[in-house]
Amino acid sequence: MKPILYIVIPCYNEEDVLPITCDMFLGKIRQLSAAGKISPESRILFVNDGSRDRTWEIICGLAEKDEHYLGIAQSRNRGHQAAVLAGLMEAKDRCDITISIDCDGQDDINAMDEMVDAYLDGCEVVYGVRSKRDSDSFFKRFTAEGFYKLLNAMGAEVVFNHADYRLISSRVLQEFANFEEVNLYLRGMVPLVGFKSTSVYYERHERLAGESHYPLKKMLALAFDGITSLSVKPIRMVFFAGLFIMMLSFIGIVWAVVAAFMGHSVAGWASLACIVCFMGGVQCLFLGIIGEYIGKIYLEVKHRPRYIISERTEGME
Ligand code: UDP
Ligand code: MG
Predict the structure, then answer these.
(1) Scanning 71, 92, 129, 206, which has the fewest C-beta atoms within 10 Å of its C-beta?
(2) Ligand 1 site-directed mutation target among 8, 9, 12, 56, most atoms within 8 Å of CB
(3) Comparing C-alpha atoms, which of 158, 129, 161 is closest to residue 145?
(4) Which atom of ligand 1 lies nearest, measured to the CA of 13?
(5) Quick one: average pLDDT of 93-105?
(6) What pLDDT does residue 105 have?
(7) Would you list the domain boundaries of the chain?
(8) Please, what CATH class does the domain formed by 5-215+305-316 belong to?
(9) Can you tell me which atom of ligand 1 is nearest the CA of 207?
(10) pTM
């Protein structure tokens, strides 16, 4: 049986670019199924993310014109990550593999061939990784690459230079559905599910039409979400900052006492300085201890699966 592929495409105010790129996606489905790699039942699933322009009308028109096009619309704009998730969850029971990709033609659609090949070779997750960032400004490249390094330093596992262009099998999506958190950072969450994975490399181009919906503000918000959703290390840092300030406060205390004995201070200053230093340190340390518990609570409320079984021998099915 050839696998059924669903290409999941989030769209937000994309009336300019959708009429151009929709044919590319359909062409790719036709080409892959003619090559015998995927089933002719494969589909293109557009997710309208509360667009204010004619995006949904265009999607409906496409769905009427050709059975390969499907569409769902979110009740309002919820952001790129939620739109991708909605599409993946809708697709998971209807197909064997999904590939999520932006609708603006930036990601090289031909990388899908390699992704499907990798799946046929036994990989359940295939990350699309940008081979270079020539089309980015220096600022974007510097901040983006720095951010991947920062995330990894924080203990979150993210694939360097991979955004949201990836193949995920429906089997992995079934497990992924158990990650019930609402603060989404998909590229950090998918590696948590595990299973055999690999990367394919592609060049990212300029947008074919329309403009980016990721201004600096949204990018920073996503980056912040990435760190705080995947790591409790920032909380742990409070504890170590508390420990450090506590140690500093002892130096302060020694200094105040010495200054008082040598007669370099007015009466009462040393005792006050000692109390201020000590209280500052103690408070920070205690805040850190409370933080440790909050970090634990944070991890608990996410209700992430504690284990995922990938293989079973006969008799354990
Ligand atoms: N997008 C979305 N909801 C949003 C913002 C963006 O579904 O609130 C979609 C958008 O239509 C596109 C993808 O997410 O398919 C990536 O957005 P964009 O190309 O604007 O970001 P950039 O490539 O500039 O980072
Ligand atoms: Mg884009």
Answers:
(1) 206
(2) 12
(3) 161
(4) 11
(5) 95
(6) 87
(7) 5-215+305-316, 233-302
(8) alpha beta
(9) 19
(10) 0.85
CA of 209 to the centre of ligand 2 (A): 10
Q: How far does residue 207's CA lie from ligand 2's centre (Å)?
A: 6
> Residue of the nearest CA to atom 12 in ligand 1?
102
For residue 106, the CA-to-ligand 2 centroid distance in Å is 6
Length, in residues, of the chain: 317
Which mutation among 213, 218, 222 tests ligand 1's pocket best, with the greatest number of atoms within 8 A of CB?
Answer: 213
Q: Which ligand is nearest to the CA of 25?
A: 1
Residue 100 binned pLDDT confidence (cut-offs 50, 70, 90): very high
Q: Which long-range contacts (CB under 8 A, 24 or more apart) does 293-300 make?
A: 294/235, 295/232, 295/235, 295/236, 296/232, 298/232, 298/235, 299/232
* Residues 69-95, mean pLDDT to the nearest whole number: 95
Q: For 190-194, 204-208, 312-316, which range has the lowest pLDDT when averaged over its residues?
A: 204-208
Is pLDDT of 102 > 80?
yes
Q: Percentage of the chain surpassing pLDDT 90?
A: 53
CA 193 / ligand 1 centre spacing (Å): 24
d(CA 48, CA 11): 5
Nearest to 235 by CA among 188, 190, 294, 185: 294
